[in-house]
Amino acid sequence: MTPTLLSFCLITFAAALAAEGAQAAGHTIQHAGDKPSVVGSATMFTGKVRQDSVARADEFSTSGITYVTFEPGARTLWHTHPAGQRLLIVSGKGLVGTADGRTDVVRAGDYVWGPPDVSHWHGATPDTAMVHIALTNSKNGKTVHWQKPVTDEEYAELAAKAVDPIKK
Ligand code: MN
User: Fold this and answer.
1) How far, in Å, from the CA of 112 to the mean position of ligand 1?
2) How much is the pTM?
3) How far is the CA of 98 from the centre of ligand 1 (A)?
4) Separation of 22 CA from ligand 1 center, angstroms?
5) Structural domains for the chain
């Protein structure tokens, strides 16, 4: 090996070590734009919904993280989570409904815990969009069981009688 080639190899090795060191000593950063936004499927949602996946469950956490953006009137189908789900409302005004017929109005900063196997739906209000972060727990690799849609009639009825903590 020539001295020039040797020094090139050493510099390359040192650079690789520095990069490795930075990764090992710090954090793994996933930058905005590393994952494309996904249009919510009709097998999961009614209306216009965008999903921005942040992270899946892994060996360090049983919880996946997704931003979900609901345009006005958009909502999930009825569904259950085998290990529950936490929702953090990031912006707008939304609705969370359960199979007992109760529907609650939620706004930015509100937090919702949905226990395992409770049939429910969530989405925007008829006139206002809503964004939430969904932290969805995983059990045996499953995070959700989708059921039937919240029909337009059902949605209008539930939205009209939703419990709003802010009286207007
Ligand atoms: Mn849910």
Assistant:
1) 10
2) 0.83
3) 10
4) 38
5) 3-24+44-167 (2.60.120.10)
Q: What is the distance in A from the centroid of ligand 1 to the CA of 26?
A: 33
How many angstroms does the Cα of residue 144 sit away from the middle of ligand 1?
A: 8
Per DSSP, the residues of 100-148 read TS-EEEEETT-EEEE-TT--EEEEE-SSS-EEEEEEEE-BTTB--EE--
CA of residue 34 to ligand 1 center, whole Å: 25
Per-residue pLDDT of the chain in tens (168 residues, 90 and over written 9): 565 555 554 555 445 444 444 455 789 999 999 999 999 999 999 999 999 999 999 999 999 999 999 999 999 999 999 999 999 999 999 999 999 999 999 999 999 999 999 999 999 999 999 999 999 999 999 999 999 999 999 999 999 999 999 976
User: Using CA atoms, how far apart are residues 103 and 96, in angstroms rounded to an integer?
Assistant: 6
Alpha carbon of residue 159 to chain centroid: 22
Query: From ligand 1's centre to the CA of 29, what distance in Å?
Result: 27
